[in-house]
């Protein structure tokens, strides 16, 4: 049986973090990007992380952040993994004392294999929809057929996922993990309990049939 992991991103409060954990999420995402409607500050993030039960991975999302900004967050918030969602070069992602994911926004003209190989030090590659001027969290789905075979890193699939399509996504793409934010929200920055539970239920249904 292939187990597909799930990450609930854009968590902004303790209640939603506990909801995700109780529903069975493997990870939660905390957004340290002021332009996002789902942004949290270090104080909020520290409270969220402190409330989580064991075995829930905490991921901090950054967009073109300076090294000192990242270190300031890490001095306050015990994050497990960093996720870089901007135009960061590999050297900007390294050296923070944490493993990292690199997000790539998919366009038809991109050589995803070459881009993934460029980030050889990443723990995983996250693929998301390309929307000009935006760095994720768009709710847009991209053409999954653009994903090449043989990616050199575990694949985290994002972009427009929701309870109604995540099983189809997993069946077609066979990712290591799926990442959702807007697809399980009641409003920007707040999660819908039933949508979170149904999303993870759908992921687990695929686990038993792949």
Automatic annotation (TrEMBL):
Name of protein: N-(5'-phosphoribosyl)anthranilate isomerase
Q: Which family does it belong to?
A: Belongs to the TrpF family.
Q: Does the keyword Amino-acid biosynthesis apply?
A: yes
List the InterPro entries. Answer: Aldolase_TIM, PRAI_dom, RibuloseP-bd_barrel, TrpF_fam
The reactions it catalyses are:
N-(5-phospho-beta-D-ribosyl)anthranilate = 1-(2-carboxyphenylamino)-1-deoxy-D-ribulose 5-phosphate
Keyword Amino-acid biosynthesis assigned to the entry: answer is yes
Q: Where is the N-(5'phosphoribosyl) anthranilate isomerase (PRAI) domain?
A: 7-201
Where in this chain does the entry annotate a coiled-coil region?
A: none
Give the organism's phylogenetic lineage: Bacteria, Pseudomonadati, Pseudomonadota, Gammaproteobacteria, Pseudomonadales
What are the UniProt keywords, alphabetically?
Answer: Amino-acid biosynthesis, Aromatic amino acid biosynthesis, Isomerase, Tryptophan biosynthesis
Q: Which gene encodes it?
A: trpF
Gene3D superfamilies, per this entry?
Aldolase class I (3.20.20.70)
Which organism was this protein described from?
Serpens gallinarum
